[in-house]
Design goal:
three-stranded antiparallel sheet; 11 strands; binds adenosine-5'-[phenylalaninyl-phosphate]; single chain; BirA Bifunctional Protein, domain 2; alpha+beta; about 375 residues; eight-stranded mixed sheet; 2 domains; 11 helices
């Protein structure tokens, strides 16, 4: 008895004195471990007579309980002390300057989208969005392309294999124009929005990729005419390319959702193998480049979108964001935009600290 009592006292003292988890573990093995003296003492109970056991067991059991409790308490104390020490060791001084400049960069498409939004916000346009997985009605029918319309074939659409029961085919939107319909249905007229985003067509070469970006523009109000469209696009491109000599040519064209329809070309010259926007496309050394489609919104589209064409009219445009990014920043292959090559991104990417603003400039290079 006295033996167990003194052994227990010695063990409790050693546990209290343990200054590390390792020393504590050694104490645990020495007492409660398989070959520890407490475990061995417990084993001797089996060979005792019931009377002997009744006499010996309480001391051994209470020694075990006291040691187990002391071990647990000391372990918790040592662990929390270690955590405190670690926190103190790893304190970060948030006031220190960053050790290295950030490695990531903003993709030119994201940069151009921010630039677009900044310029159009200044012209009073709100930013609208719509789903990339679209239904046939918003992508085609409501834009005056019914099921048999030949213009559907020009879009090289990616359809989803499952068709829903109410016969709306599900597809990846082929242009941002369905956002016109969604915005008019949600807000009615008057309306002034841009809708930048991803679009998809089964198409691939140096200037066509299966996924690309467009920005849609829509202005519906009373007495809006083609002159407003031309002014808006010219004002936008002058701000975007940061030069005053931008000349646009509006060329008669056809889109089922606009009437009349015009394609938008911009004058450019070739300087050292690089296309530089600016100047009249018919001037010596110059040419025209197509950058998007536009026109006055077809009355049938307004009807589909719940707007009264007798009261309201307006214009819409759709520009290829990747194309205007190539023109502004001098890339010549659209496919490289989506390869994710870090060398390309390091070269053409922008600093995340370089947010485009009208006051600081919308074209600052990283
Ligand atoms: C349209 O998509 C019409 N929704 C544009 C529009 C909107 C017209 C509103 C009238 C009113 P289009 O298919 O021409 O039109 O595409 C518009 C622009 O997207 C093109 O001028 C081009 O800049 C870009 N684009 C078209 N296909 C690709 C492609 N595969 N890869 C990259 N850019 C493309």
């Amino acid at each position: 008895m006295t033996d167990i009592t003194s052994q227990t006292e010695a063990a409790l003292a050693a546990i209290a004195a343990a200054d590390s988890l390792d020393t504590l573990e050694a104490q645990r093995l020495e007492t409660l471990g398989k070959k520890g003296w407490v475990s061995l003492a417990l084993k001797t109970l089996g060979g005792m007579t019931p009377e002997e056991r009744t006499a010996a067991a309480p001391a051994i059991q209470s020694a075990r309980a006291a040691i187990a409790e002391a071990l647990e308490a000391k372990k918790a104390a040592l662990e929390s002390a270690e955590l405190e020490a670690q926190l103190a060791r790893e304190t970060i001084d948030l006031t220190l300057p960053a050790a290295a400049t950030p490695k990531g960069s903003v993709h030119p498409v994201s940069q151009v989208m921010d630039e677009l939004a900044e310029i159009f916000a200044d012209l009073g346009f709100a930013v609208a969005t719509g789903p990339e997985i679209e239904d046939d009605w918003h992508n085609f029918t409501a834009l005056n392309m019914d099921e048999t319309h030949p213009a559907r074939a020009m879009h090289d659409t990616f359809y989803f294999p499952d068709k829903t029961s109410d016969s709306k085919d599900v597809l990846l939107r082929t242009h941002t124009s369905p956002v016109q319909i969604r915005s008019m249905l949600a807000q009615g007229a008057p309306i002034r929005i841009i809708a930048p985003g991803r679009v998809y067509r089964s198409d691939s070469d140096a200037t066509h990729t299966p996924m690309f970006h467009q920005v849609e523009g829509l202005v519906i109000d009373k007495d809006i005419h083609l002159g407003h469209l031309k002014w808006t696009l010219e004002t936008f491109f002058k701000a975007f390319f940061e030069r005053e000599d931008i000349v646009l040519r509006l060329r008669p064209s056809y889109f089922p959702f606009t009437e009349p329809s015009v394609e938008v070309d911009v004058g450019y010259s070739n300087e050292g193998g690089r296309r530089v926007v600016g100047g009249h496309g018919d001037a010596p050394g110059h040419a025209w480049m197509e950058i998007g489609g536009s026109g006055m919104v077809n009355a049938r589209v307004l009807e589909f979108a719940g707007v009264d064409p007798a009261e309201y009219q307006g214009f819409a445009f759709g520009l290829g964001i990747d194309r205007i990014a190539m023109l502004k920043y001098g890339m010549n292959d659209l496919r490289a935009f989506f390869d994710g090559d870090p060398r390309w991104l390091a070269h053409y990417g922008f600093s995340p600290f370089d947010q485009p603003t009208l006051s600081a400039g919308v074209g600052a290079r990283a």
